[in-house]
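Example S7 (structure tokens).
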């Protein structure tokens, strides 16, 4: 009985020593104060595009988009869908 208890203690000791070494290796990385990569400022390209587009009324981008929108509206048929099967 004592032999089994000694083997049990050895296996438990090895396991806990392994956990201790693992924790000593992992914990310093979790609490390190040095950032690996510098944080980049969040860039919202859609918001910037809207600001650029509507910032000045004489913007050439805005004029071009308005022209494209009007041309697309004229191409849309106003009647019933000719491809629908009724």
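Recovered sequence:
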């Amino acid at each position: 009985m004592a032999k089994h208890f000694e083997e049990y203690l050895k296996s438990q000791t090895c396991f806990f020593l392994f956990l201790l070494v693992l924790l000593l290796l992992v914990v310093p990385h979790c609490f390190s104060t040095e950032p690996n990569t510098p944080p980049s400022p969040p860039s919202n390209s859609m918001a910037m595009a809207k600001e650029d587009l509507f910032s000045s009324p004489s913007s050439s981008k805005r004029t071009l988009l308005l022209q494209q929108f009007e041309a697309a509206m004229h191409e849309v048929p106003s009647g019933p869908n000719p491809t629908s099967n009724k």
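Notes on this example. The first helix runs from residue 2 to 30.
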